[in-house]
Amino acid sequence: MTPATNGTTSTEPTVGSTQAAKHPVAVAFEKNSHWRRNLADLQPELFKKLGRGQSPEILWIGCADSRCPETTILGLQPGDIFCHRNIANILVPTDLNSLSVIQFAVEYLKVKHIIVCGHTSCGGIAAALGNKKLGLIDTWLMPLRHLRAQNAKMLDALPEKERGLKMVDLNVRRSVAVLMENPIVMDAMVERNLELHGVIYDVGTGELNELDIAEDEEIVEERKKAFKTEH
Ligand code: CO
Fold it and tell me: How far is the CA of 67 from the centre of ligand 1 (A)?
């Protein structure tokens, strides 16, 4: 789709301004044009290389939130990150979408790291900490309500802001745990030292902080016993 570039659409209201605001998609296309020309000037080989294929070392699992564009916030560029984003960076072991991304990234692209990223002021987290009926999305957010129920006493004792942050933390750890039970991820961790990371991004400062997700050997062994499968 190539949007009109004259800055207006027939349905756009112009009341109150002598010059209508530019169509946001037209602005985005203009920005794309500047961006690709600048990048091609700075790194003449980049697009040629990307045109031949990809070999990212990181799989990023993050929230769909507009403030968390993984490649931008990491200061990286196209080709660096394979990515799956959904509302509130929730992983469930039966979601074909995320499972397919994980399989492709781990088995075929052979990424070396998987980063699960939660973020401050996440709307999904806020929804799960509230009790307003939102419709379809309530089903998607169900794992967060389970987390809320499992940790109710601890969460209720916290001030509101800290409660939200604690839920972000718990949710990242939960998604990391789902990864650790994934047979493809389990095998890659043993066979080629695939590393998992849990991080929290602060949308108000741009800061990224890594969580300590190290586990006791006993817990690792118990998980292996319960989840490890072989031919
Ligand atoms: Co979010």
Answer: 9
